[in-house]
Amino acid sequence: MVRLNKKELFKMLPSVDEVLSQKEIEELIEKYPRSIVLESIREVIDINRKTIVAIKTEEEAEKFSLTMEKVIEETERKARDNYALSLKKVINGTGTVLHTNLGRSLISEKIKDEIWTAASRYSNLEYDLEKGERGSRYVHLTDMIKRLTGAEDVLVVNNNAAAVMLVLSTMAKGGEAIVSRGELVEVGGSFRIPSVMALSGADLVEIGATNKTHLKDYEEAITENTRALMKVHTSNYRIMGFTESISVAELVELGKKYNLPVIEDLGSGVFIDLSKYGLEYEPTVLDSIHRGADIVTFSGDKMLGGAQAGIIVGKKKYISAMKKNQLTRALRVDKLTICALEATLRMYLDEEEAVKNIPTLNMITMPMEELERKANLLYAEIEKLNLDADVHIEECLSQVGGGSMPLETMKSRGIAITPNNMNVSTLERKLRLSDSHIIARVYDNKYVLDVRTIFEDEFVDVANELKLAFM
Ligand SMILES: *Cc1c(COP(=O)(O)O)cnc(C)c1O
After folding, report:
1. What transmembrane ranges does the database entry give (predicted)?
2. How many other CB atoms are there within 10 angstroms of residue 222's CB atom?
3. Three-class SS string for 344-398?
4. For residue range 298-320, what is the model confidence (pLDDT) as tens digits?
5. Which one of 124, 203, 288, 427 has the fewest beta carbons within 10 angstroms of its own beta carbon?
């Protein structure tokens, strides 16, 4: 074996100081912190050193070249990447509205001023303006939620998993809570009711068969240790066919007979009857309260369309006890969440406004004419590019997602793209890694952009990235 003489190659590596003294790098330091630029230069030199070390043949050695121009270019790219935030905006072309991996629900642009003010100025977060003394952060959502649901009181915590844990810890710790086996859900992101119950210190008593639970199953399971009857909305799966479950109203009857509270974990907090918009009926928070549930829990960032939170509504005596539970301090919500939720909930005072301005509701209820209009617009943008691909508008199916309405698929419109000279998965990868980070589905050898979840002002970015991907 001929030993390569790599000395000449190593000589091509510039020193950090040499790179630093370049005019372009001086300009880069005006754009990014010096530490980032330095780190990037070191990385670029290091990568090239490793490339040289890995060279095994004369041929590879011949091919290797490194100019200052190339080092500068690589440093600029590295600096940009090193300075970029890890949490980035993406374009959601999947059609899944509550996409758990893509940030679940989106906050309405209408409330950006409120959120910015809460974030950047002092507020009465824990201050009673009337009395001029210390107040509680938990009062802020009370009025709005009472107005919307008729519930006696409300408590908001970090997320719904935390809400369920706090509720059980307060109401059933050291005792038993009875739940139907058919409702022991595992929600995406590994929220498992049995595990949460175990953490809360309440014993879970599972009753019934997976597909059927009768009222007498609950009744027979009641002992002197029973602290609560619980109903969990099986929001991310359905047992089809021969099924039977007990309604909240029936459980409430039973609860009254034995003086036991009824807890309902709704999962998704729906505030308006979506069957009006052609969707499957989902029980609303209002329904649960009206039917007499003592405590109802739901997420702030599923169908409600607000910020991540777990909202607990119901009887004052239980909520007062929860406020005193030490766990509450560990699960408490941030002022930005309180602000985003209150301002989102206020939009519900006018249902039409809510459906128009809360992105989650807007996307879920988007009429076919609107989907077609959007598809035509995006198609026109893409057609102008004359891509080397088959491009057409077709029907596709969107989903609500976020573990909400599992059986609900909504007819939508997609732009289907099949490249002539590129693998469809290569196209998918290029667009995913592009500056706009477009996420979409691939099936039947087509790349499909569902227009339901793509904002109109993102169409130009989609077209630009497509153009680059085909270059
Ligand atoms: C989604 C869901 C949860 C968990 O809510 P997070 O806000 O994600 O913590 C709990 N229970 C049910 C029934 C759910 O659907």
Report:
1. none
2. 17
3. HHHHCCCHHHHHHHCHHHHHHCCCHHHHHHHHHHHHHHHHCCCCCEEEEEEEEEE
4. 999 999 999 999 999 999 999 99
5. 124
Together in a domain, 271 and 289: yes
Whether residues 234 and 341 fall in one domain: yes
- Token representation of residue 279: 């969707």
330 and 457, same domain (yes or no): no
Closest C-alpha residue for ligand 1 atom 3: 267
Structural domain harbouring 19 = 2-83
Residue with tokens 């999947």: 94
155 and 238 within one domain: yes
| Ligand 1 atom closest to the CA of 402, numbered from 1 | 1
* Per-residue confidence band for 237, with pLDDT thresholds at 50, 70 and 90: very low
Quote the ligand 1 centre to 309 CA distance (angstroms): 10
Residue range 153-207, pLDDT digits in tens: 999 999 999 999 999 999 999 999 999 988 876 555 556 778 888 889 999 899 9
Residues 57, 194, single domain; the answer is: no
What residues pair up with 393 in beta bridges, in sequence order?
Answer: 415
Task: Examine the domain organization and report whether 348 and 202 are in the same domain.
Answer: yes
Angle (CA) 219 225 231, round 5°: 50
Residue 422 token pair = 């590129």
Domain boundary among 357, 377, 397: 357
Closest-CA residue, ligand 1 atom 10, reads 267
| CA of residue 268 to ligand 1 center, whole Å | 7
Total number of domains in the chain: 3
Q: Are 145 and 342 in contact (CB under 8 A)?
A: no
- If you measure from the C-alpha of residue 332 to the centroid of ligand 1, how many angstroms do you get, rounded to a whole number? 17
170 shares its domain with 225: yes
Residue 334: give its domain's CATH number.
3.40.640.10
CA of 269 to the centre of ligand 1 (A): 10
The answer, yes or no, to whether any atom of ligand 1 lies below 6 A from the CB of 306, is no
CATH of the domain at 431: 3.90.1150.110
> How remote is the CA of residue 103 from the centroid of ligand 1, in Å?
14
What's phi and psi for 266, nearest 5 deg? -80, -15
